[in-house]
Write a structure and sequence with these properties.
Pfam families: Hydrolase (PF00702). Its EC number is 3.1.3.-. It is an enzyme of class 3 (hydrolase). Keywords: Hydrolase. This is HAD phosphatase, family IIIA. This protein has 176 residues and is of the alpha/beta class. The protein has a single domain, classed as 3-Layer(aba) Sandwich (Rossmann fold). It is 38% helix and 13% strand. The protein contains six helices and six strands. A six-stranded parallel beta sheet has the order 1-6-5-2-3-4, with helices on both faces.
Length: 176
């Protein structure tokens, strides 16, 4: 059961995931959580680092789609300045949102990767959907109230994961 929470990679930040590394691993599209993964949950403007990373993905022909549990109104407002497509009400930890985004792109399971900052939603949904995953550290140390509940349980899950899979460690990038 604990294996369902295991990320393929653990990278400190999305900004360190280069298009070249994605391509080397056969990844043609990135699906990403929104809050505390791409943008701080309380600051929808994004950072210069995010915009640079998104530009690099675009130049490499790698689409980025937000997969979020938030409402369409909330996600649309948050990604408006970033001009990103999205799947809202994705029902993570179920695979619905990931599968919807993947099929929208016409890609197979091994051609996409799900990026997120939570084991209990993002990594679990990626594993259920049969796609690779990248766990990133949250952009900021505060969360919405509902995410704080997940973070509490996540500590115990992470402890078990690291015990069972000692090779799991935070990396600078995919090839670290």
């Amino acid at each position: 059961m604990i294996a369902k929470f295991k990320p393929t990679w653990m990278v400190k930040t999305v900004y360190n995931i280069s298009p070249d590394q994605l391509k080397q691993h056969g990844i043609k599209a990135v699906l990403s959580d929104l809050d505390n993964t791409l943008i701080a949950w309380n600051n929808p403007n994004g950072t210069p680092e995010l915009r640079k990373w998104m530009s690099e993905l675009r130049q490499a022909g790698i689409p980025l789609i937000v997969v979020s549990n938030n409402s369409a109104h909330r996600v649309a407002k948050a990604v408006k300045q970033l001009d990103l497509p999205f799947v809202s009400r994705s029902l993570k930890p179920l695979s619905f949102g990931i599968t919807t985004a993947r099929k929208r792109l016409g890609l197979s399971q091994n051609e996409v990767v799900m990026v997120g900052d939570q084991l209990m939603t993002d990594m679990l949904s990626a594993n259920i959907a049969g796609v690779r995953s990248i766990l990133v550290q949250p952009l900021i140390n505060t969360d919405k109230w509902d995410t704080q509940i997940n973070r509490f349980f996540e500590k115990f899950v992470m402890k078990d994961l690291l015990k069972r899979y000692p090779e799991l460690r935070w990396q600078e990038d995919l090839d670290d």
